[in-house]
Amino acid sequence: IISIIGSYAMTRLRFPGRKFFKTSIIFSYMIPTAVLFVPMYVFVSKLGFYDNKYALLIIYPTTVVPYCCYMLMSYFKAIPYALEEAALIDGCTRLKSLWHIIIPIALPGIAVVATFAFTMSWNEYLYAMIMTTSGKQQTAVVAISSFKYADSAIWGRIMSASVVTSLPVTIIYIIAQGQLISGKSDGSVK
Predict the structure, then answer these.
(1) Are 117 and 64 in contact (CB under 8 A)?
(2) Which of 4, 24, 131, 162 is deepest in the core (most CB within 10 A)?
(3) 190 in a domain, yes or no?
(4) How many domains does the chain contain in total?
(5) How far is residue 108's CA from residue 180's CA, in Å, rounded to a whole number?
């Protein structure tokens, strides 16, 4: 939702600092996630969320939103402005035109971005390993690594846990596939 609103604002609205925000999104790609471990750790610890899943609820959006904004910005640019302009002339507000015109047309792109964001968050290992140390708070991906020991691994458990862990991602891909197939002109018909 944050990515939809942010990318819509950066592609359709003219406001001071728009170019700065676009540039900062692109520059955020250049910062390796490993560089952010210490600041994120300090931030999460000060909030009292260390070794808690709330830490991941704070971290994952901050790492995923710039990617999603960038992808949606290019998708929103491809939607003709004339459709939104016609809605604005007919009396629609910006929010209504976003909700009734832009989002229905952009549903395939939004489905791709949502699938990408879910997959990135679900499969993320390093932050989950660092921020959740107790067994109860660990994510499924981190818990799978506990089946591997220094000199051996329980491969049967690792493989079966990997299959179970990949099921949510597979289900999301199946659900998103319907949106990917739908036409681009869904919201443009009056």
Answers:
(1) yes
(2) 131
(3) no
(4) 1
(5) 5
